[in-house]
């Protein structure tokens, strides 16, 4: 879904908020350690897609996700992703979410090795 030349921004004041200059940086610094904080039997997944808007090469998705963290506690958050696509891949994205919930998970739960 993400092009190698992806630029992804996480807005706000979460511990992951910054600009990521490539798909690999985004995977290494956010997606992989985030996913490793969840039980394999109950990984974080979208549970509700609230809305999808598309106009030309721009797609906006508002969605809710849920998973069970390694400490047994549920993590739920709502996201708004603004993405620009080229050749079927996302080349630019900006994410908004509840940084308080994210920061709680990020500091409370250690990723699986």
Describe what you observe in this structure.
By secondary structure, the chain is an alpha+beta fold. It contains two helices and six strands. Strands 2-1-6-5-4-3 form a six-stranded mixed beta sheet. The mean pLDDT is 97.
Lay out the secondary structure.
Layout: E1 2-10, E2 19-20, H1 23-35, E3 45-55, E4 58-68, E5 74-86, E6 89-97, H2 99-108
Oligomer: single chain
- Spans of at least 5 consecutive residues whose pLDDT stays below 50 are none
- Structural Rg: 14 Å
Gross morphology: globular
Biggest β-sheet strands, sense, barrel: 6 strands, mixed
Structural class designation? alpha+beta
Q: How far apart are the first and last residues' alpha carbons, in Å?
A: 25 Å
Task: Output the strand order for the largest sheet.
Answer: 2-1-6-5-4-3
What is the element string, with H for helices and E for strands? Answer: EEHEEEEH
